[in-house]
Amino acid sequence: MLTILSLCDKTGAWSEPYVKAGYDVRRIDLTYGSDIRLFQALPYPVRGILAAPPCTEFAASGARWWAGKGEQVLLDALAIVDACLRVITVHQPQWWVLENPVGRLKDYLGQPRMSFDPSDYGDPYTKKTLLWGHFKEPRMKPVEATEGSKMHLLPPSPDRAALRSITPSGFAQAFFEANP
Known about the structure:
- The protein is α/β, with parallel strands linked by helices.
- Helices cover 29% and strands 17% of the residues.
- It is built from six helices and six strands; from the N terminus they run E-H-E-E-H-H-E-H-E-E-H-H.
- Helix 1 (16-20) links the parallel strand 1 (3-7) and strand 2 (24-28).
- It is globular and about 45 Å long.
- The two termini are 13 Å apart.
- 33% of the residues are buried.
């Protein structure tokens, strides 16, 4: 059976095409009772790794609050990114990808391999997302971004960060098709 690790994929949206195709998908997230920082190496091969570390401390949309939060929250966020990269290094999958919105993560990982908006893959809104890794670029299926940047329209709520982090279904499917 082909194993996919889905790291910090709270909603499961990014890994869902792999689940539907019958892959053994291991979702590692606090939501599922697993802390990526404590993840131990699997004793069998891993085909691919999807990593979506929380963006709250990296996203440019929250830059005005960075200074007031202090350095510790950034260090904690970088520890999660480091843990994702450790899992990737240990398992040496055929492909891997780490995503985050435009922001300061590039200051720590270097320039991303590619960027996209959901409208590039059939979802009619914008939310520039950066990708690092070793993977085949998914084939674009562009549509007009008729909903604009709908993330800014979400009202304050305890679920706002989770709602903003949902991987667009069009991109998730296109990524799956390019990286089976």
